[in-house]
Design a protein that fits this description.
The strands form 2 sheets. Strands 1, 2, 3, 4, 5, 6, 7, 8 and 11 form a 9-stranded mixed β-sheet that branches. This protein has a two-stranded antiparallel sheet with strand order 9-10. Helices cover 40% and strands 14% of the residues. Helix 3 packs antiparallel against helix 5. With 431 residues, the protein is α/β, with parallel strands linked by helices. The protein starts with a helix and ends with a strand.
Length: 431
């Protein structure tokens, strides 16, 4: 206990107790050596933090990501033999924007039995069955779509049924869902860590999802305790690809991720939702300002992909997986189809075809190229790696875990967040 004593740590508070335990484990490890019976993680070190990031709706209304998630969860079930395995069991952090935020909420919010509200297959079915709630009025060949119509209240009713009175505190893992706050003129990330640490930062999940898909008009919303308010515009506008925000959250959150030193200590699965078909839409740019908005959104998403790939460097092939359509499929026929059953089938077919495409890889300083493996093959590979990480964690309980998620803590609103650090990108307007 010498190291802990020298640092003046004690167990009088929750943070001091946590720090005391961390230093005690580290002290024991370095003074007496590692336990020879404890296996090392497949990549060496102390395990990797697993991040799932889901883009905003894109050209498939979020269905490419939903299909990817369903396939990945089925892979995990098949290889583990556990019929009750869920994605939330194999990821430590989830970030989702727009439709991706709704998927993140469905898959990582806790039900009454302590398990996720929905399986990935159920989430996919929800997205397909509610395709009528997706905006199909865009005349630009699928460039920009409002994820749900908020003007007629249909999305509100759906989200209320999905989440009820559950809040950010009721999520299972670290959850990050963006919107744009017109009150402060800056992006804002709804964060589980902030909800647990600060009064005024816990929001109802139904409202969080409404905020991240609020594309037809600003959504005026308040925190669960009514103390703070946000004038929210959709997350797809503010942060169409939230991967970088998720990585930043982990690297700056030493309380929950104490051993994460850099990108070599994380594994990221980033799911796109299809990019615009430039050829199909080229004639509509002058007549549709929404097309330019789509260009900006897709461009921002691609820039995040490029930046993250460059940040991973030599580890990008093993630690960073990006699933995205490569513009080879047009969804124009889907948009012009008014028959709901056929439209649902076509939407799912487009997502299936994108999954079968060659994976798009970012090359350092050289843009993109088609990889040798398909999106499905990449998902199968990352599924096996996620299982290896989980097996290592289950068999090495004496080693300091890579993730120590907080479960209960409340501090004054005047106190800065201690674990989420750079995740809150704007200050919520006072009531």
């Amino acid at each position: 206990m010498a190291a802990a004593s020298m640092l003046g740590l004690n167990d009088s508070t929750g943070d001091d107790k946590l720090a005391f335990e961390i230093f005690s484990i580290l002290e024991n490890k370095f003074l007496f050596g590692p336990n020879p019976s404890s296996p090392s993680t497949p990549g060496g070190g102390n395990g990797k933090v697993r991040i799932l990031s889901i883009d905003a709706g894109g050209s498939t209304h979020g269905l490419l990501a939903a299909k990817s998630l369903a396939h990945l969860e089925a892979t995990l079930i098949r290889h583990t033999g556990n019929l009750h395995a869920r994605l939330a069991d194999f990821f430590d952090v989830v970030a989702g924007a727009g439709a991706g935020g709704v998927l993140a909420g469905m898959l990582f919010t806790r039900a009454r039995d302590g398990r996720p509200l929905f399986s990935a297959e159920e989430a996919l079915e929800f997205m397909l069955n509610n395709s009528r709630k997706l905006s199909g009025t865009c005349s630009t060949g699928g460039l920009v779509r409002r994820v749900f119509r908020s003007s007629n209240g249909s999305a509100d009713g759906l989200l209320e049924k999905l989440f009820g009175d559950l809040t950010l505190k009721d999520t299972l893992k670290a959850v990050l869902i963006p919107c744009y706050d017109l009150g402060t003129g800056a992006p804002f990330l709804f964060s589980r860590a902030d909800a647990l640490e600060m009064d005024g930062c816990d929001f109802r999940m139904a409202d969080v999802c409404r905020a991240t898909i609020a594309n037809s008009k600003a959504l005026e919303m308040r925190s669960n305790d009514g103390r703070k308010k946000i004038s929210a515009v959709g997350g797809g506008v503010a942060m169409s690809n939230p991967t970088a925000a998720a990585i930043t959250h982990v690297l700056n959150n030493k309380l929950e991720f104490p051993l994460c030193r850099g990108v070599e200590d994380v594994v990221v699965v980033s799911l796109g939702n299809g990019e615009m078909d430039c050829a199909a839409a080229s004639g509509n740019y002058k007549s549709s300002p929404a097309a330019y908005l789509s260009i900006a959104g897709d461009g921002a998403s691609d820039m995040v992909d490029q930046a993250v790939s460059m940040a991973f460097g030599e580890s990008r092939c093993s630690n960073y997986v990006r699933i995205q359509g490569n513009n080879g499929i047009s969804s124009t026929s889907v948009n012009n189809n008014n028959k709901n059953k056929k439209k649902k089938k076509n939407l799912e077919s487009v997502a299936d075809q994108m999954l079968g495409q060659k994976n798009v890889e970012s090359v350092l300083f050289k843009g993109k190229k088609l990889g040798e493996r398909s999106n499905v093959e990449k998902l199968n590979e990352i599924g096996k790696e996620l299982i290896k990480e989980q097996q290592w964690r289950n068999s090495s309980g004496c080693v300091l875990p890579p993730v120590i998620l907080k479960h209960s803590s409340t501090t004054s609103l005047d106190s800065p967040p201690r674990s989420s650090s750079a995740t809150t990108l704007s200050t919520v307007s006072s009531a």
